[in-house]
Each structure stands twice: as C-alpha cells, then as structure tokens.
Design brief:
The chain is built from ten helices and no strands. By secondary structure, the chain is mainly α. It has two domains: 88 residues, Orthogonal Bundle (Helix Hairpins); 166 residues, no CATH class. The radius of gyration is 30 Å and the shape is elongated.
C-alpha cells in the first residue's frame, strides 16, 4: 500500500508539473488566456480534442505534440494508480473484516476464558477494572482513552495461586484450533493479533513440555509467570480493540460481549 501511495504521489507531481508547463506554453506561444490555456491543456492530455480551441501556429502544434507525448502517459498513470489504490483499500478492508471474524472466534473459543483465568490471579486488577467495564455508551474516544490508560499498567500474576494443571489441559485441547488460526493467511494484516496467538501457543508449549507441574523450582515458576504475563497483556489489549470493533459494526454481538465481560464480576448472559 505504501508503494502505491508513493507511486501515486510521483505521478501526481509529474502530472501537475506537465499541466503547469503546458498552460504557460500555450499562453506564450498561442497567446491564450489562462482559462483557455488550461482548457486546451486538459483536453490535449486527456486526448479528448473537442476542436473548439486548438493550436493555430506551427510552434503551437509542435508544442501540443510534446504535451500529448508527455502528458497522456502521466495522466493515465494517475488514473490507473488512483483506481488501484481504491481497489487495494477495498480488498484490505475485506481482509481486515475476515481477521476480525477470526478474532471473534478466538475469544469465543479460548480468549475470554483465558482472560477470566489470568485476571482472577491478578492482585492489581482493581486498578484497571473500571477501565475494562465497557458500556453501551462508550464512544470512539472512550475506547482510545481507556486503551492509553492501560499502556502503563504493570500486569501482575500471583503464580502460586494459579493451578497450572487445568490451564495445561485447556490449552492442550485447543492446540489444533490455535494451529488453524496461525495458518490463516489473513493474519498478515493484523500483527498484534498474530503476536497474541504466538504468545498463547508458546505458553501452551511451555506447559505441555513439563511432565509434572507440581513442585517446580521458583526459577521455572518465574519463567512461566513471564509467559503468562505476556499473553495476559496482549489479550487485554486485543480484547478492548475487538470490543470497539463490535460496537461499531455488530451491535447485537456487542450486546452479548457486554453481558459476558470477563472483567465484570456480575456479568451474566441472561437479560434481566
């Protein structure tokens, strides 16, 4: 996309330069007014050639041929690049929509449960809980503000309160699911979600590689704690972004997500 934008800028600069030189040339050679010279330049470069205004001098005719040779290619280049950019934006939007569907499947299948498990053993959760109690009244600015407030939060995990056995069984059961998500080519459009999947997959591998999770040395528990914190911080960030997407695009899905908020202790899917 960036290369398309750069190419469009280059063609646009060249096109504007040719237009300016063409207008000045027709004004000087043919003695046309600014408006007539601009009109003649545009119809010449666009190869329309209405014939109502045309070069009458020999020098003007030669100059018009130069404008055609230089301008037509540039004009077509601008049109082609503008069209390509529009199509590229449309395709990117469609790909991002697919990624958001994948993110939704992830949180339905595994992400929300992990947020519940991790936040339960976060001793400092009360410091950010209020920033994660999303409501239907949140605006775009509210999501941005809350996201920024979470950037400086030191995610904590009390590893000794965490029963690693159920976590290992849960993640091991989701191995094929995680692999299918990672294999999806659409993830190339969403680097942060890819990093989240890799963090969760790595945590699963760390836990499943150990034959016994009981009596692990403190050094090993500290290592696992670091892996959990990494996945936890990425989960929270991605969850908040996904909630914003649902509010903007899918109000009915957003309604259910509000009623199953993993950070709301009183959350219930039942509508009272």
């Amino acid at each position: 996309m960036e290369s398309l934008k750069l190419r469009f800028r280059v063609f646009s600069i060249i096109f504007i330069t040719v237009i300016v030189l063409s207008v000045l040339g027709f004004m000087m050679i043919e003695g046309l007014s600014l408006v007539d010279a601009l009109y003649l330049s545009v119809v010449t470069m666009a190869t329309v050639g209405y014939g109502d205004i045309h070069p009458v001098t020999l020098a003007g005719k030669f100059f018009a041929m130069v404008v055609i040779v230089m301008g037509v290619g540039t004009f077509l280049g601008v049109i082609a690049n503008a069209t390509e950019m529009m199509l590229s934006k449309r395709e990117k939007k469609a790909r991002l929509e697919k990624v958001n569907m994948i993110i939704g499947v992830f949180f339905s299948g595994i992400g929300t449960q992990l947020l519940i498990d991790f936040s339960t053993v976060d001793p400092q959760l009360t410091n950010i809980r209020k920033d994660l109690l999303v409501t239907d009244g949140w605006s775009e600015q509210d999501f941005i503000k809350k996201g920024r407030s979470l950037e400086n939060y030191e995610y904590a995990i009390e590893i000794h309160r965490f029963d690693l056995h159920p976590l290992r069984l849960f993640l091991a059961g989701q191995r094929d699911f995680l692999l299918r998500l990672l294999e999806n080519p659409s993830l190339l459009e969403h680097e942060s979600f890819t990093q989240l999947l890799l963090a969760v997959f790595h945590l699963m591998e760390e836990l499943t590689c150990r034959t016994n999770l009981t009596g692990l040395p403190e050094s090993d528990l500290a290592h696992i704690k670091g892996d959990i914190k990494r996945a936890y911080s990425l989960l929270v960030k991605e969850w908040l972004n996904y909630m914003k997407h649902l509010k903007n695009q899918y109000p009915y899905l957003f309604s259910l997500a509000l009623r199953t908020n993993p950070f709301d202790q009183g959350a219930s899917p039942v509508i009272h």
